[in-house]
């Protein structure tokens, strides 16, 4: 990723980037490679992102769970650089994500709406996409282009076994339970 970003500042960067992209396209099978590539394309839309534009109308890429956020980010950063016919092609591809798979139509529509929400409203090229965005905006808006998984903070405390058991609904003050707790106390490691 850093190498691609450094290439942007070198003379004949375009040719070198194209060569590197051809190598990656031939061999990259893991989503992490495509994620990093799309992230770099989002950060450098003119130098790299524009060369990735065909990914945005590929059904396999658009429907891949592993790169959804990156596709949305690439749409946001790249859309202003695209010709109208390319925007139309992308919007048609978004509209057709997993069409014909009725068993999961709610998820498919959610994904289509998520991608439409990434498009700058003033650059939307098709009446179908404009109409869908108007419906979404009139309701609660399109789904956010947010990660599927996010680490959050956690709290720690000095809870002991009794607190844990009490939290689980075990009556620790009953004589039999109190006796068991007293029996194991000498074997506990103090911290």
What is the strand and helix layout of this fold?
Layout: H1 2-7, H2 13-27, H3 31-43, H4 59-62, H5 68-78, H6 84-95, H7 105-116, H8 127-138, H9 161-167, H10 175-184
Description:
The chain is mainly α. It has ten helices and no strands. It has helices at residues 2-7, 13-27, 31-43, 59-62, 68-78, 84-95, 105-116, 127-138, 161-167, 175-184. Helix 3 (31-43) packs parallel to helix 5. It starts with a helix and ends in a 7-residue tail after the last helix.
Instruction: Write the element-wise H/E pattern from the N-terminal end onward.
Output: HHHHHHHHHH
Average pLDDT, all residues: 83
Low-confidence stretches: none
Annotation, overall tally of beta strands: 0
Instruction: Enumerate how many helices there are, as a single number.
Output: 10
Helical residues, percent: 40-55%
Q: State the end-to-end CA separation.
A: 44 Å
Instruction: Please identify the oligomeric state.
Output: single chain
Cα-atom radius of gyration: 26 Å
User: Structural class of the secondary elements?
Assistant: mainly alpha
The amount of beta strand, in percent, is under 5%
Summarize the structure.
The protein is an all-alpha fold and 191 residues long.
What attributes characterize this protein structure?
single chain, 191 residues, mainly alpha, 10 helices, 0% strand
